[in-house]
Every structure is written in structure tokens, then in C-alpha cells.
Amino acid sequence: MTTGRRSRSRDRWGREPAADLDTGPDADPESVARTILLDQLTGRARTRAELADKLASKGVPDEVGHRLLDRFEEVGLVDDSAFAREWVEQRQRGRGLARRALAQELRRKGVDDEVAREALEEVDGDAEEASARRLVQARLRTVSTLDRDRATRRLVGMLARKGHSSATAFRVVRSELDAVGLERDDDPEVDGL
């Protein structure tokens, strides 16, 4: 028994696909590409490389894609520099990522190395250390039952996965463990027990 409604696939946000998008063999590649680009830019900013990959995956001819991407850059809808600055600021503040991890993410997104370098120059070393300190402080409760060496390894490993240098990681972890009073294993008071 049918209800008279056609089942249509939805995207990951629950939206129905655009009804006017004709992707058949007679479809105008430029209007298809324009619709794809606008749909991609609706949720968040994207890099030129991400958009070019999306157009290629949908079968849009390269010359049409390049022409439209150039036009979108001219009017400011695609701006890799602005994307990189915003990405670095959000990921550094929100996830506590260090320059190294941010550079890898930008590279994966297709941002030019020079553009990425300019965006990463805005990350202050003190801010990077402060974010590492916040990450460690947030995890201290989960390592409070461990001995100091094991806690140190876990916390330093977590910071390394976030792209922090080993020098920064060890300095921050040592400082924070000292602040909460987690005793050193080589402490004579502990050895005497």
C-alpha cells in the first residue's frame, strides 16, 4: 500500500535535493556547476581545491569549473586566505591544535603553502601554550589515579596528537602535574613508603 508520496533521498542535514537541478545529458554544465558551488558554500566556507574536487566528482568539465571558480573568487565567495585564517582561529581556539597540526589540516584542504604560512603566523606562541595548558587541565581528572610517569605519557601523547612540540608538551604537563600535586615517582617520600 502506498501513500501517494514519492520517497526522495535527503542530504545529511535532512534537506531534500534541489528539484530544479537537471544533471541529465542535456543539462547546461555551467548552471549545474553554479548550483553545486552554491550548495557547497551554503553550510560553510570551502577552499577552491575542495570545490574543484566536488565539481570534478559530479562530472563538470574542467574549463567550466575553472571559469566559475575564478568568477566566485572575483566576487569574494571563494577566498582561500580568509578560509585559512578563519580555520586556524577556530581550530586553534576550539580544539587546541598547534601550528603543525593546523598546517597539515590546511594542506589536506588544498590551501596553498604560502597562504597557510601567512594564516599560521597569526598564531601566537603564548596562545598555543595556553591552549595546551587548557587541554591538560581538562584531562587531569582522568589521569589523577595514575602514577606520574603514566599520567605524563598520556598527557604528552594527547598534546602530540594535537600537534604540540615535545618541549612544549613536557613543560606544560610537568607544570600542571606539579600544580595539582601529583608526586614524582622518584620522590624520596614516595620511596620510603
Describe the structure.
The chain has helices at residues 29-43, 48-57, 62-74, 80-95, 99-108, 113-120, 125-143, 148-161, 166-180, 188-191. The model is unreliable at 15-21 and 187-193 (pLDDT under 50). 24% of the residues are buried. With 193 residues, the chain is mainly alpha-helical. The chain is 64% helix and 0% strand. The longest helix is centred in the C-terminal third of the chain and has 19 residues, at 125-143. It folds into 3 domains: 29-78, Arc Repressor Mutant, subunit A (Orthogonal Bundle); 79-123, Arc Repressor Mutant, subunit A (Orthogonal Bundle); 125-188. It is built from 10 helices and no strands.
Please tell me what the overall shape is: elongated
Q: Rg from C-alpha positions? A: 24 Å
Strand fraction band? under 5%
Terminus-to-terminus distance: 77 Å
The SS-based structural class is mainly alpha
Keywords: Cytoplasm
Family: Belongs to the RecX family.
Function: Modulates RecA activity.
Subcellular location: Cytoplasm
Compose a concise summary of this entry:
One of its GO terms (cellular component) is cytoplasm. Modulates RecA activity. The chain has 10 helices and no strands.
